[in-house]
């Protein structure tokens, strides 16, 4: 076995920086005093952040656990203009033309239950929007993630001290197949992986350990745990999908460059305190230039009846 540890992608390390840029982008995109739907809202962070600038917001998620938790959080904060309900993006329980803005953020469409039927989800988003309603989509930029090779291999760890090995491959059409294996305790691989210097986020969490297999890991050290598939969107394929669904003036751009540049220049420590200012500057520029590369994609499109 020969494994080379690779430098971690910055976007796996400090999500707080990305969230700051995303929040700036959303504050600029979402107009004031309007009705907003957040599809795949999970913990409701985005609606909580936008709550003061909108008239009414509804978050839906397929996970009952997430919406129950988020509704509890809303009540605790005594927020009256938001609600969170369980629903499927493929069958939105709202009348046509109910929302001025529909958000779909954080890779929701690429979930395995959705990507094969993304047309259903997209046509539902079109349906519930007003005639000139706005949609905002955000997802990972897989052209970026796979820019060095058509494969991506890494270790993850669980809270109870187990290690998992992921062998991800991407086809030209953008379909990613992820094979997952548990590292067997007592194997030389288990010893190796537990002794590595795992990257730690500024929030103190150990992130994933990216590696390159210079010779294959012997299968006897691994237990196969299943395979999952995801659709990977690239700037072009994402734009095409939204245009096909009937959106006009579709703009897609990548963001996350400031973190990447600071990280490559070894400046993360130095600029740490000015993160918020950098995030603001990047959001301004991203909108003006509407181009670039980076780990995340942001799309804005308008429905025109
Ligand atoms: C990665 S999270 C993104 C959360 C949030 N939008 C954000 O950006 O922080 C994706 C969410 O999509 C939800 N989801 C997956 N399939 C869904 C579906 N068919 N309908 C509604 N929500 C779905 C998942 O339960 C999960 O909470």
Could you characterize the architecture of this molecule?
This protein has 305 residues and is an alpha/beta fold. The chain is built from eleven helices and 13 strands. A seven-stranded mixed sheet has the order 4-3-2-5-6-13-12, with helices on both faces. A six-stranded antiparallel sheet has the order 1-10-7-8-9-11. Helix 1 packs across helix 11. The termini are far apart. The mean pLDDT is 91. The structure holds S-adenosylmethionine (SAM). S-adenosylmethionine (SAM) binds next to strand 3 and helix 4.
Write a brief caption for the model.
With 305 residues, the protein is α/β, with parallel strands linked by helices. It folds into two domains: 13-143 and 232-303, Vaccinia Virus protein VP39 (Rossmann fold, 3-Layer(aba) Sandwich); 147-230, no CATH class.
Please render the helix and strand layout as text:
Layout: E1 2-5, H1 15-29, E2 35-39, H2 45-50, E3 56-61, H3 64-76, E4 82-86, E5 99-104, H4 112-115, H5 118-128, E6 129-140, H6 142-145, E7 151-157, E8 163-170, E9 175-183, H7 188-194, E10 209-215, E11 222-231, H8 235-244, E12 247-255, H9 257-264, H10 268-271, H11 275-289, E13 296-303
Parallel strand pairs: 2-3, 2-5, 3-4, 5-6
Antiparallel strand pairs: 1-10, 6-13, 7-8, 7-10, 8-9, 9-11, 12-13
Helix pairs in contact: 1-11
This protein binds S-adenosylmethionine (SAM).
